[in-house]
Write a structure and sequence with these properties.
The protein has helices at 20-49, 55-71, 74-85, 91-117, 126-144, 147-155, 167-182, 188-204. By secondary structure, it is an all-alpha fold. It has one domain. It is elongated, with a radius of gyration of 18 Å.
Length: 205
């Protein structure tokens, strides 16, 4: 959550008194940071695929696939919320935000436990690479730990009806179109889907 002034410690930012437009701007930031960390993880995955097979390399592939599988589920939810909240705020939207918050908390705990599990690989050259992955995910999740406080403020707007498309929604449209306009777009939805399928296949093996 970046648009609102952040507290020093993750998860302690107060949204009391924040306006609806400010909250929507924060949701746009959430979606943007989600796309950014997914692109970063995809780059990490491609990089580690070229590393000679080893236990650390296998661990890095598995963990990156796990993170992409989990985090990629947030993006369409943020998109849906941005579109629907601009029209009306309902209890269902607050429940959806709470559900995302709970999943962020669970993923944050899993991230910490993975770090402990991978500590045994700390003497390998690949561990430094794994730590880069950990830091990227950890920083992203820390930004989202304020979602529970954010949701409490959004709850105060239940029943609010809007014009259908907020300024934040128009910003979202511009974000979507920018890669195509400049001709440098990458089909990340396809790429993330491929990694998710790879990870799920490995889990079923």
């Amino acid at each position: 959550m970046m648009a609102t002034k952040r507290a020093l410690f993750a998860g302690t930012t107060s949204y009391m008194g924040s306006g609806f437009d400010d909250l929507m701007e924060d949701l746009v930031e959430c979606r943007g940071s989600t796309k950014a960390v997914l692109a970063q993880l995809e780059a990490f995955f491609i990089e580690v695929v070229g590393v000679p097979t080893s236990e650390p390399a296998h661990a890095a592939q598995t963990d990156i696939g796990y993170f992409i599988n989990c985090i990629s589920r947030f993006e369409p939810e943020f998109t849906r919320l941005l579109e629907e909240l601009a029209t009306e705020v309902t209890p269902g939207h607050v429940e959806a935000l709470l559900a995302i918050s709970e999943r962020v908390d669970a993923l944050s705990e899993r991230c910490l436990s993975l770090k402990a599990e991978r500590h045994g690989l700390s003497n390998s050259a690949a561990f430094a690479f794994w730590e880069k992955v950990y830091v990227a995910v950890r920083e992203y999740l820390d930004d989202l730990l304020d979602l529970s406080n954010f949701t409490a403020q959004m709850k105060t707007f239940i029943g609010r009806r809007g014009a259908g498309k907020s300024e934040a929604h128009e910003t979202l449209r511009a974000f979507h179109l920018k890669p195509n306009v400049f001709g440098v777009g990458i089909n990340f939805n396809y790429a993330f889907g491929w990694v998710r399928r790879w990870w799920q296949k490995r889990q079923g093996a």
